[in-house]
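Subject: complex prediction, re-run

Hi both,

The earlier run crashed halfway through, so I resubmitted it with identical inputs.
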Amino acid sequence: MSRKSLLAALAAALMVAASSCVNAPEVSTEQIVLDNIFSRKSVRSFTDEPVTPQQIETLLRAGMAAPSGSNIQPWSFVVLQDKDRYLEIFSENNFNQRVFAQSAAIIVVCSDTTVVRAPRNDPQGTPVKMVNGTWRDDAGAVTENILLAVEAMGLGAVWTACYPYHDRMDPVKSSLGLPAEVVPYSVVALGHPAGDDQPKDKWKPEKVHYGKW
Amino acid sequence: MSRKSLLAALAAALMVAASSCVNAPEVSTEQIVLDNIFSRKSVRSFTDEPVTPQQIETLLRAGMAAPSGSNIQPWSFVVLQDKDRYLEIFSENNFNQRVFAQSAAIIVVCSDTTVVRAPRNDPQGTPVKMVNGTWRDDAGAVTENILLAVEAMGLGAVWTACYPYHDRMDPVKSSLGLPAEVVPYSVVALGHPAGDDQPKDKWKPEKVHYGKW
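This time it finished cleanly. Structure:
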């Protein structure tokens, strides 16, 4: 092997080194998180592939990382994976039947509408059961966290409103045996996306007001 | 330069190539998004560093990427950056004064409680103004998207509930000149974190029920 060919090999090796590192991912974590928010979509058609217990737990961990008014954490979850059973439950008030029939699992995000605490006007007083004014807001943030985790994990899901519709809530609440003060807030059907659903561009600058409406 | 030293140089170049690419970030986009969800925290102390118009727009774009019941997109936003003015507005019902006094900007997430559409029982009928049953849920998802974008951008924010507290909503609504049907839902104070605030671990497996409560 001549010195010239060795020099050529050396040059080639350095070019490989350079190119392979130029090709390394350059996207910032900020952009990855933002892209995930912009890519989140309502997925309504799924393949037959199941979701794993580990995937479900990761989604629940993401849900429980939501902010909570006064840190009350009023949320709870019912996970349904027996499709025959959940199609029976939701057929009573059949909303999104077609979607549920394809989904691999359903997470019912629930929230306790009450909290036991000292009265605001008497912080040192005896705790009493009262309405939690932000139970619904916490449950909304929980549901959004789950949907964003779903997107990041390559899964798909759709948020189906349960609260405030009594024709939807009542059969779910009775079938799942929820306590009196616990509301079935949202029904998240999930699975592996069939690829038919795309995110919407909802950016409307006219919805932004600076300083005053 | 001898053949031996050229071979040594070639070997060295290849080792540099290998090591520099082994050192490239190996964290998946899934883990980056999940870590951001778990890192999101309520930030209540800020430095004096301002936020840029570009940062504000990115946060509003993230907010408007939220899911929306029936795709009504009832949200709108009032951005406040004149601190004297917003401290005056919020002093009327002073909630989180100390936090607002440190923040670089405030985003008031608003939502229209009404929608003009054909009646559900007559989809082809004349559109009429009716209550939007999911305006509050959409606004919750919008607020969470903004908080997650804030975390990803290295900023900090705290979600302050405005709705459903009339003592908080009324002065904000009148000061900002919101239309009658538009509610000031949440007040998001943001800025560059002073570093005092940490995320909470809220994972409680006992809050998960499988199949039934």
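Chain B touches chain A through 84 residues (CB under 8 Å).

- K.
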